[in-house]
Amino acid sequence: MEILYNILTATIISGSLSIILVIAEYFFANYGDCKITVNNKKEIVVKGGGNLLNALAENKIFIPSACGGRGSCGFCKVKALDGAGPVLPTEKPYLSASELKDSIRLSCQIKVRQDIKIHIPEELFNIKKFKAKIVEIIDYTYDIKGITFQLLEPNTVDFKAGQYMQLETPKYEKSKQVISRAYSISSIPDIKDSIQLIIRRVPDGICTTWVHDYMKLGDIVNLVGPFGDFYIRDTEADIIYVAGGSGKAPIKSMIEHFAKYQSTRKMTYFFGARTTKDLYLTEEFQEYEKTMPDFTYVPVLSAPSPDDGWTGKTGFIPPYFKDYIRDPLNTEAYLCGSPGMIAAVEKELINLGVAKDKIYFDSF
Amino acid sequence: MKLSPEEKRIMDKMQPGILTVDGFLGNDTRNLHEILQEDAETIEAYGYTAEDIGKRMRYFTERSKEAYEEPILIDQKYLVQQDIWRGKVVCPFPHKGLYTKADIHLKNIENNIEISWTPLNIHFIEEHGFFEGKGSKHRIDPETIIKALF
Questions:
Q1: A93 touching B, CB under 8 A?
Q2: Least enclosed by CB within 10 Å: which of A122, A144, A178, B147?
Q3: Is the CB of residue A202 less than 8 Å away from at least one CB of chain B?
Q4: What is the CATH number of domain A33-124?
């Protein structure tokens, strides 16, 4: 009984102290204005007390984050040069020993309480937050939609074919918070006032459930980007593309970009699907074979049903590569899909003589 | 037993609409430590550990990748197929880690028991002994999974 009494007393005392500390911080902790110096060239002044990720976003510097600053994705890393305070226990699980040694921190976990100096990759300065309106929704298959977003503010975007945006989905019946997820841009860079994303339903996924079951024309959302280093290299090499499902999004952007300029590069796109129900945009890609004489579209079904009447290629994709690669040393590959698919495709391409550093991929 | 602040934080992250649409607790009214304890007792009664089960799940998950999302017969007894989705999910327990979104379906063709799991389920079981709450979409009843996998 006495032990229980002591535990209860200690709990009440520690609880009361915690409440007092929170109240005191709310009323008395005034950190004033704090200066954040980014890459020794940009200085922003913010009201102290908030977290660094939000402070930067409010000043139009967007650090990639998949969890919206809840400390659960580990994406929002920055190099903290000065003033960031000690590493918190909430950050340590997401940081390797070398990152800790290199002063890498999670920006969502850093409280701005004094002047801070940080370093971020230069390309992040090009990232913007866009307010956008949904103007078109296309059902490509039973579980894949193409959504076009008209950009409102800012009203134009510059990106490279293959890059991605983060879509913020609002709070809705099945999500208690705003969340953001990354999706590849499927439209071409020449169209600057809108973008299209291709989004496949993910079972139990918060964002794709909203997209597939709740989103409607006219909805206003936020997009942040563009991000990513999966984009077409400026060479004249032959190209092998491999992607199925929603992995078609960045490849569509790349090939449509080439089609617009009637590219003469030799390109082959292997699109993997299970049955004919999973095929989409087939006619459009076959049309590109007419406008680009050296472009070939090769859909491959892994499990066509007898009802499909499928007469095209079947099975796995890699065995077909040898029929389409004319000069492995002058071939690049762009792959988008699961890690297993990418590993298998990469292995076969290397076996055939394609250089490993010419194989670019966007892994799910 | 009263919830510790740590346990409450974890259970908050397991609610629907936080990390996944349906969360990880289903309609289970028990606290996390009670769920863990009851399931641990069940697998112990069968002579297995959570590590044994996790290792077996990992074996089938890795083998099924050989078939690139098509069904594959493993060890002449297990029909396994894996669907892989875009994106990753974090664990609600406090540590580093992102887990591929995928569903692995297994049918034991000797006893016709069918189960499904995700890569996060493997981690839950191996590292935390957590089979999810009753009524949760991805809960795997410990007794059923033992009968299916061994």
A1: yes
A2: A122
A3: yes
A4: 3.10.20.30
